[in-house]
Amino acid sequence: MRGSQRDFIHQLVLIINPLPQSRDEYEAKRREKRKVNKGRAKERLANEIALAEEAGDEDKIKELRMGKRRRRNRKPPEQGALRVGFDCQFEHLMSEREVISVGRQVQCCYHHNQEFQKQCWMMLSSFGGDLQNRLEKANYKHWPGVVANPNRFDQAFKKEDVVYLTAESENTLEEIDQSKLYMIGAIVDRNREKGLCHQLATDASVQTARLPISEHMEMSTRVVITIDQVFQIVLQLYNGATMTEALAAAMPVRKGWEMKEDGEEAAQKETVDQDSAAEPKLKGATEQHNAEQDSASQGGATAEEKEASS
Ligand SMILES: C[S@@+](CC[C@H](N)C(=O)[O-])C[C@H]1O[C@@H](n2cnc3c(N)ncnc32)[C@H](O)[C@@H]1O
């Protein structure tokens, strides 16, 4: 999508859904959206229970009735588990709304992580400022598996362990190496800071890798994706998904993608995953993602803004 088209869509979105004028209006909108999302989640759960009842799947019914919170795995990841880093040094480059969006995406990542059988350590570097204040309100200190460090990634971690994920890298991520720490830039910049993370990683002499999105998908939009999508893809791969499966599970249908030839099966599977039941390993995070991406967009960005924000 060209810049002018994106601006036009952005304007259109603002006309249909104008930005709140005041904090109160913003909070009211947020509460309203939460209510709608809660209603949808309830409906979805009722549908899932009905399907499980039809199939006579007692275990599933019990699990669904226990509720999402208790189904989540609240134990910390294993000692030698994969580490995924969040480089939080970009606050000065973002508006308040963008910092809020980063906070929500990190929160979503924490929830996604709990949905997977194999969880990773979430390592926050350059952690501080407004992002820290926001995550403190969300009680991040009690989140198992989240480790915060005020130092920059190249001081906080062994440089030889770090692989910075950047869309501009010449290297392609083919598989997950558990001994590495995969770094994600915790930034929402609506593409203002093109190539910034790649430049920082190169200057710090750490390895970089891009996700092979264009190799697997026909995209109508750019291949810079959001923090939580990147996180989900890494987690899917870590949990044994193929690259096609991982991309299909993490990329929202509204991005307008299609799988390339050998990925068609997975694209179809994704449609099924999002509509009804599928493998829990792939499904859990996708569902969570869709529900939470909507909630993440409330204070940060609309669907279109969010797309533009990556
Ligand atoms: C919204 S993007 C930020 C884009 C930013 N302009 C930059 O310089 O990277 C957030 C982060 O997701 C990761 N990311 C996004 N798309 C990616 C891709 N196609 N391959 C690898 N990493 C990607 C990068 O770590 C990036 O910093």
Which features does this protein show?
310 residues; alpha/beta; Alpha/beta knot; 2 domains; six-stranded parallel sheet; two-stranded antiparallel sheet; 14 helices; 8 strands; binds S-adenosylmethionine
Care to describe what's here?
The relative contact order is 0.14. The C terminus is likely disordered. The protein folds into two domains: 71 residues, no CATH class; 238 residues, 3-Layer(aba) Sandwich (Alpha/beta knot), CATH 3.40.1280.30. The protein has 310 residues and is of the alpha/beta class. It has a six-stranded parallel sheet with strand order 3-2-1-5-4-6, sandwiched between helices. It has a two-stranded antiparallel sheet with strand order 7-8. S-adenosylmethionine (SAM) binds next to strand 5, helix 8 and helix 10. S-adenosylmethionine binds next to strand 5, helix 8 and helix 10.
